[in-house]
Specification:
The structure is a single chain. With 336 residues, the chain is mainly α. The chain has two domains: 220 residues, HUPs (Rossmann fold, 3-Layer(aba) Sandwich); 81 residues, Tyrosyl-Transfer RNA Synthetase. 55% of the residues lie in helices and 7% in strands. It has 14 helices and five strands. It has a three-stranded parallel β-sheet with strand order 1-2-3. α4 crosses α8, α8 crosses α9 and α10 runs antiparallel to α13. The protein is globular. Bound molecules: tryptophan. The site of tryptophan has 15 residues, from β1, α8 and β4.
Amino acid sequence: MEKQTILTGIRPTGHLHLGHYFGACSNWIKLQEKFDTYIEIADVQALTDNFNNPDKVRKSVRQLVVDLLSIGIDPKKATIFIQSTIPEIAELTVFYSNLVTIARLQRNPTVKTEIKQKKELFGESGESITYGFLGYPVSQAADITAFKGKLVPVGEDQLPLIEQCREIVHKFNSIYGQTLIEPKAYLSEIPRIKGLDGNEKMGKSLGNAIFLADDEKTIKQKIMGAITDPNKIKIDDPANPNICMVYYYHKLIKNPNIETVCEECKNGKRGCVVCKKELINHMLEFLKPITDKRKYYENHPEIVDQILKEGNQKAKKIAENTMKEVKKSMKINYFE
Ligand code: TRP
């Protein structure tokens, strides 16, 4: 039986953090065993709100690929490619843009949240919202459909984008005839990871993230600053582990002594400093194999480049094929 295709993407704007890892990427490692897996480094999408910082996007592309390889994405099983090397995606974006209203894009909850964050940063002028940024969900629909992705493994924040893609596909097929595949989102067990500060979401811009590439010193500092039960003042005060970020991360990285941590915390038998130090040790242990693999790829940039070149080539063929079908359906295949 032919393997089903899954496609996912990630913006190259910095290193992966634990939120990416537990919220989405660890799922990709499992899925690559069973599915024909495509992972897009979405540089064109990253440029929609980093168009004035091309150096950052360029640098992040290889960094991100190294992160992905270090956590166990296997280039023999998953095709990693760069969005901008597949011009068919940009072409599809143009075709799909006729099938989406501006009002619908403005109502997309993910876009809405991002616009709100931008307004907080740049003021009410709204000048920071470009045509390209508002349209990135259309381009994301092109990413997914160019590869006929059936399943899209993503974090929870991406659900409105997958829904928007389904609508575009539906409209395309109903106007031009059955051509594209309507994708489904595929969430991981924990689709959203809390930040060190207790915020519901871990994010780079929120400043509450542990990056997979953080060094020992940084990890120590970050964990020592994590939010614990504010009612615990003295070392032997009983506390509530369920509102403590240190306990949350003990659980997340599967500390085998988790029950002891919980009991001791509840009974005032464990101070926060000791508990944080224990978490630091487990975290460093958890990150060790990832760090070792990163060193290997950092020392072999030619291997990373080769993986990308092969990935780009393979992805390009598939997108070309889809493009042929799309042009035929849209009756713009003039010389065939
Ligand atoms: N929007 C995604 C993010 O911000 C990245 C992305 C780009 C993506 N293209 C995609 C995700 C296609 C899934 C499918 O992380």
